[in-house]
Each structure stands twice: as C-alpha cells, then as structure tokens.
C-alpha cells in the first residue's frame, strides 16, 4: 500500500496521523503532490492553540521542550509559554474563536491555575478548567515538570499520555 492509501484507511478509522513538519519540509516535492486526505490531516493538526504554563525551561529541559513542539507539529503562532503567576486577562483569548488547550507543567502550576488542592498524581489524566474569569471553558491538562522528565525518563510514557489527552481535547472542542 502506498502512503495515501494508508492515510485514507487511518482517516476512515478516525485515527489522526502524526508526522513531523521537519520531515515534510525536507521533501518539498512531496508537499506539492500531497493527496487531499493528507491535506485534510495537515489542516486538522494545525487547528488550535497550545498554552504551556510553568517555569520557563532552560538547558536540557529547553531542548526537550523544543522536541515536544516539533513532535506536536506546532508552528510558532500555534503555541505560547505563559507564567501561571500572571493574572489571566480575557483579552488574551483569540477573537476568531480558535480552540485553546492549556498544559500545566508541575503540580504547583496545575493547582494555581485550576484552584484544586490535590497533588499532581490526582490531577493528571483529568481535564481540568482554568479558574479565572473568562477562562472557565479553557481545558487544562496537568502533567510533569520538564526537569522531572529528564531526571526520571520512565515518566515520559505518562507524559506522552497527557499530550495525547490534550491533543484529543483540542480536536473535540
């Protein structure tokens, strides 16, 4: 089977195909000959904005974060880094109604944003809401701090589950 046939079958089964945008840009001739199914998959993948809350990554954590952005296939305008201590302003919301999903790195960031008191293990794998005026409808996914993922690589599988949950929430908004 060729790639477009595989893409068509996956789409019919409701499975989103993930590909690295780096790989697509390395093959300019493949972009020009993409099938309509592949173009639709590309549009689905780029719909929505990701807000990342927590301590801004540095060093190895920054490299890990950039790899996460690359794997998610996000362009610079599709994500932003935010400080959970900043006061939320409804003016930050896109005026065109673009869906947003928020990721809180670490238990303290998740608690601050959601108003919950539970620890990170209880907050994970749950779609929370941001506890701020005008942001009650924004989904919030709690996950590990990036430095913890570097120190405990076995937690990366759980982190990946959190990203898949966020991706699923974003697609269903």
Condensed summary:
This protein is α/β, with parallel strands linked by helices. It is built from 9 helices and 5 strands, in the order ααααβαββααββαα. The protein has a 5-stranded mixed beta sheet.
Report on the architecture of this protein:
The chain is α/β, with parallel strands linked by helices and 173 residues long. 45% of the residues lie in helices and 13% in strands. The protein has 9 helices and 5 strands, in the order ααααβαββααββαα. The protein is globular and about 50 Å long.
Count of alpha and pi helical runs: 9
Q: Which percent band covers the strand fraction? A: 5-15%
Which descriptor suits the 3D outline?
globular
Task: Write the element-wise H/E pattern from the N-terminal end onward.
Answer: HHHHEHEEHHEEHH
Secondary-structure-based class equals alpha/beta
For the record, give the distance between the C-alpha atoms at the N and C termini, rounded to a whole number.
33 Å
Which oligomerization state do the chains in this entry correspond to? Answer: single chain
Portion of residues within helices: 40-55%
Give the biggest beta sheet: 5 strands, mixed
Q: What is the gyration radius calculated from CA atoms?
A: 17 Å
Mean pLDDT: 81
Task: Going across the biggest sheet, name each strand in turn.
Answer: 2-1-3-5-4
The count of β-strands is 5
Q: Unreliable segments (pLDDT under 50, ≥5 consecutive)?
A: 27-46
Provide tags for this entry.
single chain, 173 residues, alpha/beta, five-stranded mixed sheet
How does the SSE layout of this entry go?
Layout: H1 3-12, H2 21-26, H3 28-32, H4 36-45, E1 49-53, H5 60-72, E2 79-82, E3 100-105, H6 107-114, H7 120-123, E4 127-129, E5 139-143, H8 146-151, H9 156-171
Parallel strand pairs: 1-2, 1-3, 3-5
Antiparallel strand pairs: 4-5
